[in-house]
């Protein structure tokens, strides 16, 4: 019997911390999802401000983008997207994910992330057999999950250019993540040229700082709507999300979610939110 819905996902997902101190600057966490029985996934993926590598050991995953199906290889990643996608998968599920910080995957790929914005890319196209090697290590059930992660981290470090971001660039990203109140205001207070900031974001994240800020704001307010707060009206939502007014809030929300805020609250929970910022 196939179990439908995503409420059971919380019990299927295990999250692991990054072990290596250097990689902690680039990778948020790892996650692993495995089901003992058959399940059916047919859910909406919301825009988020980070990129995950997906290693799928089970039946193929199908993404639907603008009504067109995309079936990637078992090891793939999604560039930062500004619109929703549908994900479908059926059967017993076994998926491992590496969740990077917004700027974190560039040192591994060494290709400007602007090329991958809104796209699903097979990792083999960029890293060759390296991705398959990682997948084989993670599939080895003879060692513990933590030991598998340690071995994988060693391999990632050998491929990763951890020094490609200088200290100034690292500080700009970390400050922007914390003080994400507006691009112009940030540049003035930080003494950063806005064109320079845009080049950094396009190179390392794939999107402009303005789009990144909008996605981050949507990500925060949509999560709060689902899990943390009860809202009485759209005006309260718009105020809490720091939108100009209710009209601006509805317009932005529809752009990123594809539905109105009211319909969003009535829809099924999304895989994305259940994974607590992890991709998939």
TrEMBL record:
Family matches, as Pfam families: DUF6597 (PF20240), HTH_18 (PF12833)
Entry annotated with the keyword Calcium: no
PROSITE patterns associated with the record: HTH_ARAC_FAMILY_2
Keywords, sorted A to Z: DNA-binding, Transcription, Transcription regulation
Signal peptide feature range: none
Gene Ontology terms for molecular function: DNA-binding transcription factor activity; sequence-specific DNA binding
Entries under InterPro entries matching the protein: AraC_XylS_family_regulators, DUF6597, Homeodomain-like_sf, HTH_AraC
Residues of the HTH araC/xylS-type domain: 167-267
Keyword Nucleotide-binding assigned: no
UniProt protein name: Transcriptional regulator, AraC family
């Amino acid at each position: 019997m196939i179990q439908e819905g995503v409420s059971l996902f919380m019990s299927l997902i295990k999250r692991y911390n990054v072990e290596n101190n250097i990689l902690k600057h680039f990778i948020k966490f790892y996650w692993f999802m495995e089901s003992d029985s058959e399940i059916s996934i047919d859910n909406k993926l919301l825009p988020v401000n980070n990129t995950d590598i997906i290693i799928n050991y089970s039946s193929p995953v199908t993404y639907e983008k603008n009504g067109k199906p995309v079936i990637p290889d078992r090891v793939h990643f999604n560039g930062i997207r500004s619109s929703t996608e549908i994900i479908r998968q059926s059967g017993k599920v076994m998926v491992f994910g590496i969740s990077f910080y917004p700027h974190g995957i560039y040192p591994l790929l060494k290709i400007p992330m602007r090329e991958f914005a809104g796209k699903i890319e097979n990792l083999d196209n960029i890293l060759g057999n390296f991705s398959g090697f990682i997948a084989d290590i993670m599939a080895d059930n003879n060692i513990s999950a933590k030991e598998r992660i340690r071995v994988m981290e060693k391999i990632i470090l050998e491929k990763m250019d951890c020094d490609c971001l200088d200290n100034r660039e690292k500080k700009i990203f970390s400050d922007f993540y914390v003080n994400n109140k507006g691009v112009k205001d940030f540049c003035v207070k930080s003494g950063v040229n806005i064109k320079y900031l845009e080049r950094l974001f396009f190179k390392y994240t794939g999107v402009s700082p303005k789009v990144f800020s909008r996605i981050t704001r949507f990500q925060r307010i949509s999560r709060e709507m689902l899990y943390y707060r009860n809202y009485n009206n759209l005006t309260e939502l718009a105020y809490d999300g720091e939108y100009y007014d209710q009209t601006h809030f509805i317009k932005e929300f529809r752009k990123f979610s594809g539905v109105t805020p009211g319909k969003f609250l009535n829809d099924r929970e999304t895989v994305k939110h259940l994974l607590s910022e992890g991709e998939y």
